[in-house]
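Narrative of activities, Objective 1.

The group set out to show that a structural description can be obtained from nothing but a protein's sequence at a throughput compatible with the screening campaign. Below is one input-output pair from the validation batch, recorded exactly as produced.
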Amino acid sequence: MIEIKIAIDEVDYEGALETLYPVLAEYLSEKTENSLLAGILSRTKGFPVKAVKAGLKTLPQDTKDELAVLCLNHYKEKIVDSLVNILGKQGILLKVLDMEMECRKEPDDRYFSV
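Output recorded for this entry:
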């Protein structure tokens, strides 16, 4: 088995919010164990996306990252399918067993940019 980890930085949270807000508002507010996130998500239901974007700017980076991880995990199956399809078109056939997405507080020196 081969394990691949991808480090992501500089996410455009405001740009992605229109796509991700319905996921956050309807699905994740009930599933998150983080009481701060649950409270934020339950209070923003029904708010216009523009108002939520303004509020998003005030959140700490760690909270924004946790929201992004929740969304990535929600779309995990689609992400894996896309990865397999892209690699398959390049002649690299494989099966993805799992994909792990989590928040890390500090960068890990083991990862590098390509």
